Structures are given as C-alpha cells and as structure tokens.
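Sequence design from tokenized structure. All designs in this work follow the same two-part layout: the structure record, then the generated sequence. An example of the structure record is given first.
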C-alpha cells in the first residue's frame, strides 16, 4: 500500500509530500485537459445541438471572460463597494444594469446572481419566509428543480402549492388554479418552466392573486431572450413584480443570472431583492461574466428581435416536420410551440432515455424529459428539443426539415447511428459560424489557444 494511502482503492489523504507529482506528470494532465476540451469543441462543431437551455457566446462576450475582471472582487453595488480598485468594474456594471433595464423595459435590474438558480434563491430570500406557501407548477408539468423540496424551495423551507395543469394546451389550467390559490393563499406565485412551450396565463390569474394578496414572480430562465425580443409574453406587464433568469439560454449570454423588476412604487421590494442577491446568496459576483453579459445585452438590443423571431419560427417548423414524419409532438393543435422548445413523446420509439442516447450516438444532442402524465420520474417519456443554438448558427426552416429527416431515419427507419451522424455532420458543415452578434461570421466552436503549446 502506498505511504499515506487509506487503503480504500488507493484513495485517501496522502501524507505531506507523499503524493508529489512525478516529473512531467501534471504537465501531461494539463495537456490532457486541453486535448479533451478541444475534442469536445470539435464534437460540437459537427453535431446538431438541440439542448433547449444552451446557446453560444459571441466573440466580444467571450473575450471578456478571460479579462482581468476574472481575478477581481467587487462586493456591493457600483459606488458602494467593500473593496478598492473597482472604478472600471463600476462603470461596466452600471452599463450592464442600464442595458438590462432598457432591454426588459423595467425600472430595476440586479446582475449579481451568478446563475438562474442563484437568482431564484435571491427572490425566495426576498419574497418568502421559511414555512410560507409559494404557488408553482409541478416538475412533471415542466417546472425547474428550483421548485422542488430538494432544490431552492427546500433550501428556503417554503412549501409548494401546485397549480392545476391542462396537458392538452400544455399550460396552467386557469379555473382549477384559481380554486387552488383561494384554498392555499400563497403570498408569492411563481410562474416559469423548464419545458416551456406556451406563455403562461398570468394576466388571467392576476385578479385572483390580487384578491389573496399574492405577488407574481416569473422565472424566465428559458425564455428571457424571447421576452427581450418582444416575441413571448411580457410578465412584468402582466402581473409579476419580479423576473429572475439565467442569461445563457434564449438570451445568448454568458453563464450567469439576473433579477429584473418594477420597483418604482415599492422601494422596499427593491431593497429586499438587492439584499437577497448580496449578501443573501453571493459575496463576490462573477465580474468577467457580468462584463460579458453587458456585451450580450447590447447585442440583443441590436439583434435580438430578429433572433427571437427566427428561433420560434424554427421551433414551430421542427415540430411540424417531426409531426409530418409520425412523431408524437405535443401541442399539435396549437402549432406545437410558441417558444424555442419542442416536446416529443417517444414511448413508441423506446422512451426518453434510450432515444436521447441514440440521438447522441448519431450526432444529435438533446435531452430526455419528463412529460405530463409520465408515471415514473425515472422513466421520462419524452425528449426536449430546442432551437436557440441552431438558429444562432443561421439555420432556418429548411434545415429543421432536414433535422426531422435525420430523426426519422434513425428512429423509424433503423438507419445506423454512424450513417446518420455522417449526414448530421454534413448538414452542420454549412453552419459553424456565429450570427446575431457583432463580429458575426466568427467560428462558433473555436478553441482559443492562448499559449500556443502544451506545458512541458
Ligand atoms: C426555469 C428554470 N429556472 C432556473 C434554471 C436554473 O438556471 P441555471 O442553470 O442558470 O442555474 C433553469 C435551468 O435550466 C430553468 O430551466
């Protein structure tokens, strides 16, 4: 047994100095990490990426991720920091806040949450106390794990009151939910989904929320870029006082989070949201990502309307093309989707897990997904498909038909994954550069080699 090992398969805490790396050992680990990430980039370059929560960063935004801001601390708000040296950070963060307010047409923004989940925790800290009831949707109806006892709801100690759901229209059932709200009287009502096909009826529930004294909260993680582009619902105008979100799904920004709201008439709400973000759920925020977000917000102001419109048109075209080839696409009576997402029930093709795995073998990246009516959370009956990334690469409705043909060949006509993967790569070859951003035409999957060689 090596000195310092616990004896459990060689895993344990080494004695000081006992596990010093051999000559060149760590250099080769670094080389291996670089090679693996390059492999990843090359794989995505030839794949059809259909994960609904993913997107591609613009070159100018990417550049800021490796700027010196990555190395800095800036607790607090611009002009009121705990550290010195933040003047330039303050300037960028003020720009970022102004761009966010302009893009979402609202009075309040906070760009300190470092992800969508962290933004949700900040809202829960601001709007709810442990033990409170908070209205939300069930996971099986498409809600994010933030709403689960094992997620953010559980961390804050709040109890969910689940809305009624209409599986035919794939949205909240209004009469049933009115009854639930009157019976459970939540102080906060969360609207937002991870399987988000159609706008939610917040306006229709507004009077009931007012009647019971509940405030509306929208989790726009998935649809933020569509809302900003004016192509989805506008929650802050429909009865929600705050909107949280991730900034890297339909909004093609860096991995980060955001809070947005209408707080002009409610300075106490603004104070609580800010305190929820810091010191509630962050100390430093990620300044490099915040700067990249500022760029992405500016680009979305410039290019976002067209991008949002095409993303949705592509999703509807993909839904139609799959439906035409015998797939059970949800929401058929309503045009399949009004967002970036398409949900396909694949029980007859082998179930969500098996289909997602076979698609990946064939170069099509998607994810298995629980669908309303599924009996076991461990056996999702569907796959979720999204068009944010393929649209960002310039694909249009004709390419959505070609993608549906690949699905058909693989899952209905038993073509081999190798053959389908070759055809997926061929289709992708024409779509590997970025659109809807400044410096459009840059390689989307480029690995930026700063040093030019592996360490030795
Ligand atoms: C509705 C919803 N909210 C929040 C999140 C969490 O976002 P993040 O991954 O940025 O923490 C997600 C992630 O997919 C989501 O779908």
């Amino acid at each position: 047994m090596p000195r310092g090992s616990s004896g459990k398969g060689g895993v344990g805490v080494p004695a000081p100095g006992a596990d010093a790396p051999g000559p060149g050992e760590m250099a080769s680990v670094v080389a291996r990490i670089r090679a693996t990430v390059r492999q990843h980039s090359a794989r995505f370059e030839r794949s059809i990426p259909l994960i609904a929560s993913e997107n591609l960063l613009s070159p100018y935004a990417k550049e800021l991720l490796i700027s010196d801001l990555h190395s800095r601390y800036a607790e607090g708000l611009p002009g009121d920091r705990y550290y010195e040296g933040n003047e330039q950070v303050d300037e960028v963060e003020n720009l970022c806040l102004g761009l966010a307010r302009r893009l979402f047409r609202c009075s309040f923004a906070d760009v300190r949450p470092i992800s969508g989940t962290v933004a949700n925790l900040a809202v829960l800290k601001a709007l709810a106390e442990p033990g409170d009831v908070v209205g939300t949707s069930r996971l099986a109806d498409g809600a994010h794990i933030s709403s689960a006892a094992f997620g953010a709801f559980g961390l804050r100690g709040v109890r969910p009151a689940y809305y009624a759901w209409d599986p035919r229209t794939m949205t909240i059932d209004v009469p049933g939910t009115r009854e639930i709200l009157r019976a459970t009287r939540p102080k906060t009502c969360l609207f937002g989904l991870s399987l988000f096909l159609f706008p939610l009826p917040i306006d229709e529930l507004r009077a009931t929320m007012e009647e019971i004294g509940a405030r509306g909260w929208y989790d726009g993680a998935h649809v933020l870029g569509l809302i900003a582009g004016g192509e989805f619902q506008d929650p802050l105008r429909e009865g929600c006082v705050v909107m949280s979100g991730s900034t890297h799904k339909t909004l093609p920004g860096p991995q980060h989070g955001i809070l947005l709201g209408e707080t002009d008439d409610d300075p106490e709400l603004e104070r609580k949201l800010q305190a929820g973000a810091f010191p509630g759920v962050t100390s430093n925020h990620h300044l490099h990502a915040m700067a990249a977000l500022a760029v992405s917000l500016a680009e979305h102001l410039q290019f976002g309307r067209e991008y949002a419109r095409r993303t949705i048109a592509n999703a509807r075209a993909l839904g139609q093309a799959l439906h035409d080839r015998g797939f059970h696409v949800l929401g058929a009576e309503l045009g399949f989707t009004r967002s970036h997402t398409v949900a396909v029930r694949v029980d007859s093709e082998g179930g969500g897990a098996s289909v997602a795995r076979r698609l990946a073998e064939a170069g099509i990246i998607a994810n298995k997904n629980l669908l309303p009516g599924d009996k076991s959370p461990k056996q999702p009956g569907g796959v979720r498909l999204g068009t944010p990334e393929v649209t960002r690469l310039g694909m249009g409705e004709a390419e959505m038909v070609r993608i549906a043909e690949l699905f058909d060949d693989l899952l209905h006509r038993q073509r081999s994954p190798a053959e389908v993967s070759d055809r997926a790569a061929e289709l992708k070859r024409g779509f590997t550069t970025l659109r809807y951003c400044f410096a459009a035409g840059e390689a989307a999957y480029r690995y930026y080699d700063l040093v030019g060689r592996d360490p030795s």
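Residues 287-324 form the longest helix (38 residues). We note this feature because it recurs in several other targets discussed in the main text.
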